[in-house]
Specification:
Blueprint lengths: L1 E5 L10 H11 L3 E4 L4 H4 L9 H12 L3 E5 L7 H6 L26 H18 L5 E5 L15 H15 L2 H8 L26 H29 L4 E6 L8 H6 L3 E6 L1 H7 L4 H6 L8 H12 L4 E6 L17 H11 L4 E4 L26 H15 L9 E4 L2 H9 L8 H14 L4 E4 L10 E4 L9 H6 L5 E3 L27 E8 L6 E2 L4 E11 L5 E2 L5 E6 L2 E4 L1 E2 L2 H15 L10 E5 L3 E6 L5 E3 L4 E3 L3 E6 L3
Parallel strand pairs: 1-2, 1-8, 2-3, 3-4, 4-5, 5-6, 6-7, 7-8, 9-10, 9-11, 11-12, 12-18
Antiparallel strand pairs: 13-15, 14-15, 15-19, 16-17, 17-18, 20-21, 21-24, 22-23
The protein binds beta-D-galactopyranose (GAL).
Length: about 625
């Protein structure tokens, strides 16, 4: 695994570039990402390009032996461009334009902005497409960051109507699919359909789901417009996009099909603080991040990149954007780096080389402080580099467990949670975490993935079961678990004929007759586990495999297939994993709290995320906080 950093030559005087490059090499870095926000310097005025500085920056970095990832600058359209076409900005759900003065202020559907992007990307790749030091292109930066996938602009509305006409052909078909007879919502033509916002109460969920599908397709086609241009001028050069953490607003699997290497931006401490984790977890893992945050995304994005993936931005110290921004424990930056290697990353690149003393991110740590002295992470990068040298190249091994991840499922649950604490990402993450707590390696895969190589398959929920999925599962010979709400909706967001779980009934004969959600704090006892958040009443000829203390069935099994009719708490997920692993003959580990294991093809890595020393039985050693043990695999 290579190491790299994100560098902004345009932020620094030219006379320090060479020294920066030399110091990067000295620290063990061989990659550097540049360019992704530099539009106003590349093209200071419409049509007037200033390539000189970028030519010299690229030469300076290349001369030091660094390989370059060059970003297209389309996340930051300059002021002159916004002034030229003010309607290119996105409009938020409240109908307000997203103003100039930060970044990502564009609408994915605006044809004029798309043409400008094609122009600037073509200009860049025509100039640098053949440069031997440029080993990868990054399209844009973090699609969707700052809540920017959805736009309610005129351009988006117009594009949505075209998208609907292509999907439904006739307006009658749309009215029927959405159930628009309800509340007299029927349309007479596609031209009458608006985006689903500013309605008095909630808009039709079918309308929302199609708007989300449309918006996701807009991201995919926006990205593809860039990859097509890059491939034409830089054939054979790898293309990536840097995805975000805990983010489901567009179909990353679909974008993944158009790039060579999926990368993501790993900020474990910021994510712990910003997402649903309990206060106890936020305290326990304050300076380490929850032990599964980074790994979860490594495994998810490996699936999005068809196996090839990396970390484009690795947190090196406190960030600036979470509610609270602690510093990592000494050792954590090295540990995060090695966790990525253990999952088969091609590279880890730190964000950023030097902390900027100005503008929005001046409180965000880098590998250097603003005065160019080394920040705390610098020596950890050296340490990680030397461990990586020692263990040699790592690649991902076949994981025993697959976890099926569906962006559409996230949209369906988000549009119609029905219970405020039914959160798709949390459900999937909890299943993932439970697998890792028993020492299992996991692949997080798309619903259309080949599942035949796995020894157990978990589908935390899949409300809309895609065509062919049931047949694929029927052909498996390993234990399979469906979570609640699977098969509960048709593709047009309606309740299926014959009720949930819809098509899954052919895998396990049961019917969900009623669902209820439970407020936070309510917990109805089972045997060592409890019903919280969500419960389904099930009619079935099978006796339940698990029932709660009142005798109501919560898990049903038929052959290899299980259906769980409640939000499974940690204890129940654990039990189910133990049963499935037992049936599949997959060995489990009993890991102490905060300890995780990951096997590459050649090595077994053990990491201690706890904030105290932990005796780890399978290693036979006590691991201090933020430390690791790496051993060659015995088989
Ligand atoms: C990422 C982004 C970077 C920088 C970083 C700060 O989301 O891609 O440009 O803003 O966060 O943590």
């Amino acid at each position: 695994m290579k190491l790299g950093c994100c560098y902004y030559p345009e932020h620094w005087p030219e006379d320090i570039w060479a020294e920066d490059a030399r110091r990067m090499r000295d620290m063990g870095l061989s990659l550097v990402r540049i360019g992704e926000f530099a539009w106003s310097r590349i093209e200071p005025e419409p049509g007037r390009y200033d390539w000189g500085w970028l030519d010299r920056a690229i030469e300076t970095l290349a001369d030091a032996g660094l390989q370059i990832i060059l970003g297209t600058p389309t996340a930051t359209p300059p002021k002159w461009l916004v002034d030229q076409m003010p309607d290119m900005v996105a409009i938020d759900e409240q109908g307000r334009p997203r103003g100039f003065g930060s970044r990502r202020h564009y609408c994915f559907s605006h044809p004029g902005y798309r043409a400008e992007c094609a122009r600037i990307v073509a200009a860049m790749v025509e100039r640098y497409g053949q440069h031997p030091a440029i080993v990868m292109w990054q399209t844009d930066n973090e699609y969707g960051c700052h809540d920017t996938v959805l736009s309610f602009s005129d351009a988006a509305a117009a594009a949505f109507r075209v998208w609907l006409a292509a999907r439904y052909d006739t307006i009658d078909a749309l009215n029927t699919a959405w159930g628009n007879v309800f509340w007299s919502m029927e349309y007479r033509s596609f031209a009458e359909v608006d985006p689903p916002h500013l309605t008095v109460t909630e808009a039709n969920p079918a309308h929302w789901l199609d708007y989300r599908r449309f918006a996701s397709d807009a991201v995919v086609s926006f990205n593809r417009a860039q990859t097509d241009i890059i491939r034409a001028h830089a054939p054979g050069c790898d293309i990536t996009h840097n995805f975000m953490g805990f983010f489901t607003e567009f179909d990353h699997h679909a974008v993944g099909h158009d790039i060579d290497v999926a990368t993501w931006d790993s900020y474990p401490l910021g994510f712990l603080e910003q997402f649903w984790f309990s206060s106890a977890e936020k305290r326990a893992y304050l300076r380490q991040g929850h032990p599964d945050i980074a790994a979860f995304h490594h495994d998810l994005y490996r699936g999005c990149g068809g196996g090839r993936w990396g970390v484009m931005e690795q947190q090196p110290g406190p960030v600036n954007w979470a509610r609270f921004n602690p510093a990592p424990l000494p050792g954590m930056v090295a540990l995060w780096t090695l966790e990525a290697a253990a999952h088969g990353a091609e590279f880890t690149s730190y964000f950023r080389w030097r902390q900027a003393p100005f503008a929005q991110e001046q409180m965000h740590a880098g590998l250097l402080r603003p005065d160019s002295t080394e920040a705390e992470a610098a020596n950890e990068v050296r340490e990680a580099a030397s461990v990586l040298d020692e263990i040699g190249p790592q690649s991902a091994a076949q994981a025993p467990a697959a976890l099926v991840f569906s962006y559409e499922a996230a949209w369906v649950i988000g549009i119609q949670p029905q219970g405020a604490s039914f959160r798709y990402l949390e459900l999937v993450f909890d299943c993932y975490s439970a697998l890792r707590q028993r020492g299992l390696d996991v692949d997080i895969v798309a619903p259309d993935a080949d599942l035949s190589g796995y020894r157990m398959v978990l589908i935390p929920t899949l409300p809309i079961v895609p065509q062919g999925f049931v047949e694929k599962v029927a052909a498996l010979t390993c234990p399979v678990l469906f979570g609640p709400r699977s098969g509960s909706k048709t593709a047009s967001f309606a309740i299926p004929d014959g009720l949930a779980p819809g098509d899954c009934k052919s895998l396990i004969a049961l019917t969900v007759t009623r669902v209820e959600s439970l407020r936070d704090g309510v917990s109805e006892p089972g045997d060592g586990w409890a019903v919280t958040r969500w419960r389904e009443d099930v009619r079935s000829r099978f006796a339940p495999e698990f029932a709660d203390a009142a005798g109501q069935g919560v898990v049903y099994v038929s052959g290899d297939v299980r259906y769980c009719a409640i939000w499974p708490d940690a204890a129940l997920v654990r039990l189910l994993i133990e049963r499935m692993a037992g049936e599949a003959g997959v060995p489990l580990l009993d890991l102490p709290e905060g300890v995780r294991v990951r096997r590459s093809a050649s090595h077994c890595f053990t990491f201690n995320y706890a904030s105290e020393p932990v005796l780890v039985p399978h290693v036979g050693e006590t691991l201090s906080p933020a430390s690791w043990h790496i051993a060659p695999r015995t088989r």
